[in-house]
Design a protein that fits this description.
21% strand, nine-stranded antiparallel β-sheet, alpha+beta, six-stranded antiparallel β-sheet, 518 residues
Length: 518
């Protein structure tokens, strides 16, 4: 996962289904509301690959919203691009995100192994007018970490390693490697910085960086803190864990996951994401962008989404930390495997390695999210309640978090929150934007850059690309990529001295010009 500002902010289409004869178990005395449907769906079986289909050609003068061939393997018909989906509880909730171009992908909510909703929206490829379906493969970015952690636990059960082993056992002569354990890597307490935050990343992100290359690069980086004394999210930790999996198992990382997880769980549509490999039914990735129409001309339905193709970068470096693709159904099969404790009991672990612990309205759950250029993904697993929410999107916008929260509300019988309002378009001049340019410190080793380009203001997170800020008032903006509001703060002299992120987190302005344009 590209962490971007993760250190800063932690901020459906059928009526919900539940057999009322089965009460929802709760670990406390609180009894959550139940949800009903006459004929609940059954969990999906791994689907065979669909026959190859090509969308019907669309004449240039026609709107691109009704020209798609239907996919027979799609249980519910996909929502046409540029048109609102049918109106029901979940669709009413999802519709505003679609209209604003903030979501394009698949959602799944299940409870008691019954599907409450499972549907796809938007385009797998907007240029070719190909819709997302249940068989569309999405880059899942940091959800990969949950698979890497599971691989380590499996190897420990097989007696091939121990989480107390030192890093030096697998990477000799690594600085402080004798003090860093596998457990430290799993819990992000190694002190090793994330490769996204190192100065070399901008130079290497377009190159193929294998394990040996990454180890050589990270040997030169100072630790952020003494191992096991603190915690800081680091993608390098999970890249090293993938390397350890290869050393301990004697097979390539993906082969080990395939043999020990993908095949046993029936996951036939999960593998290593690559920009160069031909992956059937892979979604194209998009980022938020500014698309000013020609003078006096309206935006076309596709351009109205304000998206661009995500830029290329080589993903070899993400092996173990953010390298996998999957489908909505395959991730549900993965959840079912964890829920049923088929391989190991995640609740018996000292810490749910590869996941974060969260709480939603008094209910504890496990969550992992992913973000990389063009994609976001999120899975929330309420193990005690046998409830799971999965969101996959090929638009790199932070709407996955509020969408998941709304679907969680629906899963537990509540009304989803009001849809987000259309954000006002308040434009300042390019000259007035100049005072905001500069560098802002998120954390000691994490910087974001702000600069003007044309008539718009752009922000770049650590290791990322400049993406647009949408003005909502004088000095205030909305950042679609993280779905958060931010404001520039001025001191008593009127000089911009910081960014207030999400209303409360202060990022101080530091000396120096912003990083070069993308």
């Amino acid at each position: 996962m590209r962490p971007l500002l993760s250190l800063v902010i932690f901020s459906l289409v059928l009526n919900p289904a539940l057999d009322a004869r089965q009460p929802l178990p709760a670990p406390s005395s609180q009894n959550p509301a139940t949800v009903h449907q006459a004929e609940p769906q059954q969990p999906p079986a791994p689907a065979p690959a669909p026959p190859q289909q090509n969308p019907a050609p669309v004449p240039a003068q026609q709107e691109p919203t009704t020209q798609y061939q239907q996919n027979p393997d799609q249980e519910e018909q996909p929502a046409p691009l540029g048109q609102p989906p049918p109106v029901d509880q979940v669709d009413r909730f999802i519709q505003p995100y679609l209209q604003m171009g903030d979501f394009s992908g698949c959602i799944l909510v299940a409870r008691y192994a019954r599907i409450l909703t499972r549907k796809c929206y938007g385009g797998a490829n907007y240029e070719l007018r190909v819709v997302n379906t249940l068989n569309t493969r999405f880059h899942i970015a940091s959800i990969t970490k949950a698979f890497t952690a599971a691989g380590i636990v499996i190897l420990e059960q097989q007696g091939k390693l121990h989480t107390g082993d030192s890093l030096s056992r697998y990477i000799p002569n690594f600085p402080s490697g004798d003090k860093i354990t596998i457990k430290d890597l799993l819990e992000h307490s190694s002190g090793i910085p994330s490769y996204y935050d190192i100065p070399e990343y901008d130079a290497i992100k377009y190159k193929s960086v294998n394990f040996d290359d990454l180890i050589a690069i990270m040997r030169k980086q100072p630790l952020l803190f003494e191992p096991s004394k603190k915690s800081a999210y680091s993608d390098t930790n999970y890249a090293f864990l993938a390397y350890i999996i290869e050393k301990a198992s004697g097979m390539p990382y993906e082969q080990f996951l395939n043999d020990e997880i993908f095949v046993p769980f029936g996951m036939k549509n999960t593998g290593t994401f690559s920009d160069t490999t031909l992956i059937p039914q892979r979604a194209s990735g998009y980022q938020p962008w500014i698309d000013d129409p020609p003078s006096g001309q309206p935006l076309s339905p596709i351009r109205h989404l304000r998206l661009r193709n995500a830029p290329f970068y080589d993903k070899t470096i993400t092996t173990g930390s953010g390298s996998l693709y999957s489908t909505i159904d395959d991730l549900y099969l993965f959840y079912q495997g964890l829920q049923s404790k088929r391989i190991f009991d995640i609740e018996s672990l000292e810490y749910p390695y590869g996941w974060g612990t969260r709480e939603f309205k008094g209910r504890k759950f496990l969550e992992q999210s992913g973000r990389d250029p063009g994609f976001v993904a999120r899975i929330a697993a309420f193990i005690d309640y046998n409830v799971v929410v999965i969101v996959l999107s090929n638009v790199e916008v932070g709407a996955d978090a509020p969408i998941a929260e709304g679907l969680q509300t629906i899963a537990f019988g509540g009304e989803p929150p009001l849809p987000p309002p259309e954000r006002p378009a308040i434009q300042e001049t390019a000259q007035s934007y100049k005072i905001y340019e500069g560098r802002y410190q998120i954390a000691p080793n994490s910087i974001m850059d702000v600069r003007v380009n044309g008539d718009h203001l752009f922000l770049r997170g650590p290791g990322g690309n400049y993406l647009p800020l949408e003005p909502t008032g004088r000095g205030s903006f909305f950042y679609r990529q993280m779905y958060v509001s931010m404001a520039f703060h001025r001191d008593d002299n009127g000089t911009v001295d910081s960014i207030v992120w999400g209303g409360n987190y202060v990022c101080k302005k530091i000396p120096g010009p912003p990083a070069p344009w993308n």
